[in-house]
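We emphasize that the prediction below concerns an isolated chain of 179 residues; any contacts that depend on oligomerization or on bound cofactors are therefore not represented. The input was used exactly as deposited, without trimming of termini.
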Amino acid sequence: MTHQRLGDYDNSWFLRGRPRHVEALWILASIFVSSSIPGSGLRCWFLRRFGAVIGDGVVIKSRVRVKFPWRLSVGSNSWIGEGVWLDNLAQIDIGSDCCVSQGVYVCTGNHDWSSETFDLVTEPVSIRDGCWVGAFARIAPGVTLGVDAVVAMGGVIVGNVPASTVFGGNPATLIKARD
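Result of the prediction step, given as a C-alpha cell string:
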C-alpha cells in the first residue's frame, strides 16, 4: 500500500446538520458553554436553543465541549463533568441518571486509515440509562454502553459494553459484573 494522499481527501458528502450561519452562531455561544464560568442552567439553555435534547435536572459543568448540539440527547438527571468533550459528528445519546465524569472524550468520527484518501467515517454513540463513565475515559465511535454499565477511570472503550458490567483498562476489558 502507498501512503495516504491527504491532498485527495474529500468529505464534501458530510452533512453538518445545520446551515453555516447557525454553526457560526453556535461557535460564538460555545465560548460560554466551554468556559470556566459557573452556570449549568445557562449551558443547558444554550444547548437546547441549538437543538440539543436535554432532560430535566441535567447538570453540565464548566469547560464542556460539544461539536454539534443538534446531534446530542441527554436524559433527565444526568451529569456531564468538567472538561468533557462530546465530539459528535454523529449522534450521541446519553440516557437518564448517567454520570459522564470529568475529562471524558466521546468520539463519533474517525478516518479510514486503510483508504488512500483517508475517508471520514462517522458512527453514533449510545450511553444508556444508569451508566457511569469514569474520569478521563475514552469512548470510540459506534460504541453502546448497556444500561447500568460502568467504565473505570481512564478506560478506553472500543467495543460495546454489556449492561450491568464494569469495564476498564486500555483497551478496556471486563472487570466484573455490577452488583
